[in-house]
Write a structure and sequence with these properties.
membrane; 16 strands; six-stranded antiparallel β-sheet; 568 residues; nucleotidyltransferase; Alpha-Beta Plaits; alpha+beta; five-stranded antiparallel β-sheet; Beta-Lactamase
């Protein structure tokens, strides 16, 4: 057996299904829009970071070109220092000598160091280095021994970065008197030269940091040793920066070797050479999200600066605030919520309209149909429902008319056209009830055609039917408007006189009897008389008792010679 679903249940299911389908579509569009927004944000900033790397590369290429040009004069400057020393060795003025060396030098700076035979920097224009014992470095000691012994005359070191981000190249020569090793340090303040160009590159929507990977540490080119109270404090900061840098890089690369490197003592390894093997230099950018600072970060890297021997790697970190992305995502969310609420409102209004104009109307029509009632107070803006209501009312009205006709026919005697025994039974019960409740009296008369069997036998049943019709017409013509006439049997008729007592009903019966006698008994018709029984209702009467009594009076009239009236 198939299960049926109610209109309300179907309506609820339809509404929920439609909302789920629409909401799912909106949510899919929302998530897709968020994904596209996030990807576009990352791609846009990725492109900006690539552009930033290329701009920095152009700066570094320029610096490297200038550095190479400057190296051409380094040997001449070393010879100039030797000459200045020989001319002034009795009364050395390092400041004056340094100024002389740096005259007409537009790129970089020359520092003077004079190292005695005990490997100690005895004199220097860079005061922090005075007194430094270089003999503790085995390789330096061996080098200086060879220079003093004139095994080699000159050494040009590879470029090195110190902790202040100064790029240096050292040239060494023993003085003519063999007392000192004369050393020129050609240095370039890397951060200063870059900062000259930096303001052309920076934007309000991003932050740029430059890091240099040297042999032992990661350095921020803008951090100077003078910013710290001591060299140890500077070293601690550099160590912490190195660990932080490696941790950032590992957020993107997820490399166990880099993770291990971040917790290792980088002074015991060659950091820059290790990073060359682990990080994809000059390739795609390394990116990660810093949730604490709410930034998107990109690391771009380049190869060794100032030649492969320098082993110095550059890393450019560009950081973009995630606030614009968050704002766009919030806008997407607000749009999603607005459209969802709007759709829900539209669906709710549609549901309300559907319920008011369709569901409730159909339910009301269904109830009316169940109760077999006219739909009088229901209208709908839906034409089909209005047509349904109209068609139903028209059909029901026709049905009621047909029922009334059938009901009327069921209370009508088919031969005479007056009311029948069924109508009499309902009427007499109603009148007895009214009498007992309100005391409204009435009288009841029964008529029977005398010797009607002879008429049928002598003239036939068709003639007998005509006689019965004539009796009915005669009785109908001679009663009052409020009196009720019934045929209850073959030739038996009953008249009820509402609100009429026995005496008044006797007068009415006598009048009826005489008029019927005149109208029915003519020369061309057989003689026809009526025997009559008459009674008035009493408080003890029922439908059966009053009929029995009046029928008894009819029997007495028949027994007493017929064509008479017998009453109480």
């Amino acid at each position: 057996m198939n299960k049926k679903i109610s209109l309300k249940a179907f309506n609820a299911f339809f509404f929920a299904s439609l909302f789920i389908i629409v909401f799912s579509g909106l949510y899919y569009q929302y998530t897709a829009s968020n994904k596209i927004t996030s990807v576009n944000f990352k791609n846009s900033n990725y492109t900006k970071s690539l552009e930033m790397r290329e701009k920095f590369r152009s700066i570094f290429d320029k610096l490297e070109y200038q550095f190479i040009q400057a190296e051409g004069q380094n040997i001449d400057k070393l010879e100039q220092l030797s000459t200045l020393y020989n001319n002034q060795k009795e009364h050395l003025n390092l400041k004056k000598m340094e100024d002389e060396l740096n005259r007409n030098v537009n790129f970089g700076k020359y520092d003077i160091f004079m190292i005695n035979q005990d490997y100690i920097i005895e004199k220097a224009s860079y005061e922090k280095e005075i007194g430094l014992n270089l003999g503790q470095f085995k390789s330096v000691k061996e080098l200086f021994d060879k220079i003093f012994n004139k095994t080699i005359k000159l050494d040009i070191s590879s470029p090195k970065l110190d902790l202040d981000s100064r790029l240096k190249r050292y040239l060494i020569k023993v003085s003519d008197d063999g007392k000192y090793i004369l050393q020129i340090g050609f240095s370039l303040d890397y951060s200063k030269e870059i900062n000259k160009q930096l303001h052309y590159l920076l934007t309000e929507t991003s932050q740029t940091n430059l890091y240099l990977a040297t042999e032992f540490f990661i350095q921020d080119i803008n951090i100077k040793s003078k910013d710290f109270k001591s060299k140890a404090e500077h070293n601690e900061y550099t160590k912490a920066l190195t660990q932080r840098f490696l941790s950032d890089i590992n957020l993107a690369l997820k490399n166990k070797e880099i993770e291990k490197l971040a917790t290792s003592d980088t002074r015991k390894i060659s950091l820059n050479k290790t990073l060359v093997k682990l990080i994809p230099l000059n390739e795609k950018l390394i990116s990660f999200t810093d949730k604490k600072k709410n930034t998107l970060n990109f690391y771009s890297s380049t190869g060794s600066l100032f030649g492969e021997k320098s082993d110095t790697l550059l890393f450019i970190k560009t950081s973009f605030p995630l606030a614009p992305l968050d704002s766009d995502l919030r806008a997407n969310l607000n749009t999603f919520l607005f459209i969802s609420i709007l759709i829900l409102l539209v669906l709710t209004l549609f549901e309300y309209y559907k319920k008011r104009e369709i569901t409730s109307k159909i339910s009301a029509i269904t109830n009316m149909i169940k109760d077999n009632k006219m739909i009088e107070n229901e209208t709908s803006s839906i034409k089909d429902i209005s047509d349904l209501i109209g068609s139903y009312n028209k059909t029901l009205n026709n049905l009621h008319k047909q029922i009334n006709i059938n009901k009327s026919l069921s209370y009508t005697d088919f031969l005479t056209g007056i009311k029948n025994r069924k109508a009499y039974d309902e009427s007499i019960e109603k009148l007895i009830s009214q009498y007992k409740r309100y005391g409204t009296t009435f009288s009841l008369a029964i008529f029977d055609a005398d010797d009607f069997k002879k008429i049928n036998d002598n003239y036939g049943h068709s003639f007998g039917d005509t006689v019965l019709k004539n009796i009915a017409n005669a009785l109908k013509s001679n009663i009052r408007d409020g009196d009720m006439l019934f045929r209850i049997g073959g030739e038996e008729f009953i008249i009820i006189f509402p609100s009429t007592n026995l005496e008044n009903s006797k007068q009415a019966i006598e009048h009826i009897r005489k008029n019927i006698d005149l109208s029915l008994n003519t020369n061309n018709k057989p003689t026809l008389t009526l025997s009559i029984g008459l009674t008035e209702v009493t408080s003890q009467d029922s439908k059966d008792s009053i009929f029995k009594r009046v029928d008894t009076f009819l029997y007495v009239s028949k027994k007493n010679g017929k064509n008479t009236v017998t009453s109480d």
